[in-house]
């Protein structure tokens, strides 16, 4: 960490700062899209900036790991020529939420491990993060507080600058040289943070957990999945409702699975990758036709094992959920993370009619 | 940073038919520097590219050599392997790798070795065998038990004869169904156990083949008294990236392409999903 | 990545979705959170709706058949050939010998142009649409318009949800989702269907029957000695909602069911929600003319728009030898293309503008996100050019001009077709099971767009049938076996899946359309 400088910027000065940032790079910032949807998307004019931004249904990780991308082009000729396609565009994410920064950090570690993924890492290396902490949940579906997913970030968790909304202004905590540089694009707009600013921040964030209404029993879920202590019948019941749409995967800031395909026409073509999801039978079906994970209940159970087991937590460094709530919005059938965790919590519990029933003596024949 | 998704180009230098649906390809590198630098261990695999169709993960079928390329034995099963079967010597093929872990070989030095192969499971074990034969004196008795569906479905027919008559290893074969030319045993490969003597306390067993065959082989080995970490096998899964990123080949928390494909029985018996 | 708001091209729910565009390519899609239908969700069809756009087999040039093979030619040549052929047929056989076949994906603008071409160019009423839509000719508009016709947002308000049909969660997931959530909240569900599916499993009453039209009729007419549990439910409900997915039944039986529903509305304070199959089936409904295949005898020229009748319509291939000109406008080569004299490459939903009506009658607009590949053109542009070449005046050359000239009028009722539809007959030995087609399943599995959608193709690689465990035991069938299904009009191989979702003695399959008794033999 280059510095732990803390500044304050007045709310009405923010557009001018963003305008200065837009002169340097693509700013992916909060705006309102068509149909009134909240978006974190490339700003074409600073007037689009919407400081009342809630949360984008599309996770910002999808700018670094897009739904589909060309890996390389190939051309028949003397042998074959391969041309890899890299994306080194500069991006400044402005207003990205804490949960999504944690998602980016998770994906960074995943793509760096063993065999570094040059496509993701190139985009990540060219991305700066100006995050926006949440003094209250932006949406009723948020549950980051149950998942170590927010609502604020500590130094070293991946932001370049963290903005926390105070009355009429933002606290700006700088955590890297990049953050320094972004502040220096419009230094006259910033003042040093004073003790009063910091204590206002502390006051706002103390008690933030009480403002979240969705509860998810993550620790309980992790324990049960790690120990394979969930009745098979529960997985069957939950999986039956799942219609395999893939929304929970595509919209999850921590999901990274993809498939790779070739496309060819007239002597040239491309190899591309595209997001993929594990509730499809084709995810594991082998060329012989054999499918080791053919039943929907097995696929459904396995998805939650990947997200919540201790075995994966150890591998990835954190649980596979940041509580962003997107799967709650998108799941049409009510088998999203919070709903499933609630059922897992209750799984195997003693029935309501309690000890008297359980202790009923056997009658002799 | 290396691009792990970008294949290197190789050229097919030889194609040998093994069975009606299986061919062995010898692949050589265009780039002499790469040819020299390319090393691999038995049990590993490469992702073989047919540009415009896709990739398939295929295990090395030859032992580690010096700069001479390598061999793969391919059964025509899906779109990539079928396309590969139309290739001729001189054609370009992309490869990425080597990926995966390898057969533990050091651990078997000083011990006896029994290799139990079924059908298309023999190619990766041939890679292992060649490595063992290259350091033959370090091992005790080496036995190969091979079962195929019919005599025509046996791969490496010529080599099996050479190994059998070479004196370095004991080779026993069986087929599920014989034909007019077959004079050997008929039955599943586990029936060959009764024809040899094994001392489980000083033997490492390696087995590859169809999942149902592996299941019965492992059962028999355990019954004979083999320790769980002295039984070595491979697991197969649908793969795409081969480098632990796409998520397709997971079993529980293991990625077959990174933590495998070689596993001991001890590692797989407690997996939360059936292998 | 830019986001372009448009509508899903698949079912008639009409989800609002964004095409995600980067560097000139559609790289993905996502649902609109604020859209009243999608509300942040899509089904697998919606999520994969971009995958067909850059398939390598996309048609990029017009083709004319020469010496038995399709050859790429210029637009001018192809359109001249079409005009020449159509006009030739008109001169020799009259305008009535020219016909047009649109699909449930054809936009309202394209339908309006087609209308003008047919009436002004050929004085014919011969515009066929999703054949199921003629059933609407003798059913009152009250099922689709007016106070009894429900919209999706009225589902939570109902206290009894009656569904005549199955697999809504696959064919109309947004509707199934709202029904499921209502049942979670304690609202009652009653399902009348052949197959026990997700909603039937959650309903308080599931009548398992291959003849939902008979159940509807008996409810409507109060036949039967005493009130059945079903009638009791209906009588207790203050706000029942009846739901039926069109095209689940063959023509005559569907007519019977809709007439029974109409009588039910007179008896009970019920609302009704009819579900059209495709994205613009309702828009096409408002322009319907013509009949079914039987009325196509005598046609000498036919133009088919983005539909594949040779792939699934029983009598279509018999018609083709009579045709002097068969023109197909589509995105991919299909079984119909293999028979066509001229093939015109058209743009996909993501590459053109236009309007669609979802099943509620909600008008929504398509927005083009990228240009069509190669020389492919939007359907409206192809039809506008054809209209101009036919001498039809003031057609308009931009989409806006065409929209200004549209006439959204309805066509009046017409007599019921008299040719009887297929009827199941008990045959003598050895056929063993009654095959009842899952017609909507068939519609989606044979759909041209979905057949060129990667994930859909990967998911539905095999043909399968569901057999009840008792039947499987009796017939000696094991799961995963490949069997040959043969019987009256039925002949296909499929993989066996064992499920008690369908009752004994029944085979409900989405892989063949003909109903009848079949036998199953293990294939080699």
Q: What is Rg of chain A?
A: 24 Å
Summed up, the domain count of chain C is 4
Structural class of chain C: alpha/beta
Determine and state the CATH class of the largest domain in chain C: Alpha Beta
Proportion of beta-strand residues of chain C: 15-25%
Structural summary, described in words:
The complex is a heterotrimer of chains A (365), B (275) and C (524). Chain A is an alpha+beta fold and 365 residues long. Helix content of chain A is 33%, strand content 21%. Chain A has two domains: 6-211, no CATH class; 218-346, no CATH class. In chain A, strand 2 and strand 3 form a beta hairpin. In chain A, helix 3 crosses helix 4 (118-125) and helix 7 (218-226) packs across helix 13. Chain A is globular, with a radius of gyration of 24 Å. Chain B starts with 7 loop residues before the first strand and ends in a 7-residue tail after the last helix. In chain B, the strands form three sheets. In chain B, strands 4-3-6-1-2-5 form a six-stranded antiparallel β-sheet. In chain B, strands 9-8-7-10-11-14 form a six-stranded mixed β-sheet, with helices on both faces. Chain B has six helices and 14 strands. Chain C is an alpha/beta fold. Chain C contains 18 helices and 23 strands. In chain C, helix 3 runs parallel beside helix 13. The relative contact order of chain C is 0.16. Chains in contact: A-B, A-C. Chains A and C meet through strand 3, strand 11 and strand 12 of A and strand 1, strand 2, strand 3, helix 1 and helix 5 of C.
